[in-house]
Amino acid sequence: MLVCELIKIYREEEKDKIPSYFTSDFMLITYLTDALNEFAKKTMSFYDTSSPLTQIYVPKEQHILPFDQRILEIKQAIVRETGDNLGIISANVADPVPYSLLLNSEAGEMILTKKYHYPVNIQLRVIRKPLKRLTLEDINQIIPDINEEDYRVLLHYIKYSAFSVADADIFDPNRAATNLALFEQKCQQIKDQNLRRRSAIQPIAMEWIWNV
Q1: Closest C-alpha among 158, 153, 181 to residue 170
Q2: How far apart are CA 158 and CA 156, in angstroms?
Q3: What top-level branch of life does the organism fall under (predicted)?
């Protein structure tokens, strides 16, 4: 679905089709960006193995690496040159095992427990937030990351945001609360469905990493 198509649905449902609008396109796109961020965090459904944040170049002897704050969880990390499957461990573990990647997201860094004596590339499989914020320039672009059938979940968050503006003509705390509750309920359902679906699938062989 295009950004402009979701905006059109909102305007039709909320009788906000005549300029000047109660809620501008700029604000609706801002709310959509917020909705995508919240959707990503609550459903943990934006898997990624191909964007630049999943490809990490490690210079010779370097072991402290930047941690991209758009990453919510690292599911797998493999050194392409050696095939080392790195364990993903919290940085506060007292005695990490060799061949691990220690995560310290608060400090914005990852630490390799093994220093490689040559440059290597680490391929990550992650769950992440949206890659970028949407702007008015994206109004005719496809809404990123989300399945077509889940657009209405985003619409609930957009309505929650619009009805929560205290000095706006459409301020309605009751409708805001209702839409937020629906958004959170639908996100939990999607998360639960995804967990059930993944638990029914056999563990993926390591070869996935070379086919991205």
Answers
A1: 158
A2: 5
A3: Bacteria
Task: State the Cα angle at 96 between 90 and 101, rounded to 5°.
Answer: 55
Contacts with 29 (C-beta within 8 Å, 6 or more apart), sequence order: 3, 7, 134, 135, 136, 138, 139
112 and 125 Cβ atoms separated by less than 8 Å: no
User: Per residue in 90-112, pLDDT tens?
Assistant: 877 656 677 899 998 888 899 99
* DSSP states along 91-125: TT-SSPPSSEEEEETTTTEEEESS--SS-EEEEEE
Q: Is the pTM higher than 0.90?
A: no
CA distance linking residue 101 with residue 116, whole number of Å: 13
Closest CA to 157 of 132, 131, 177: 177
Q: Reduced to 3 states, what is the DSSP secondary structure of residue 70? A: coil
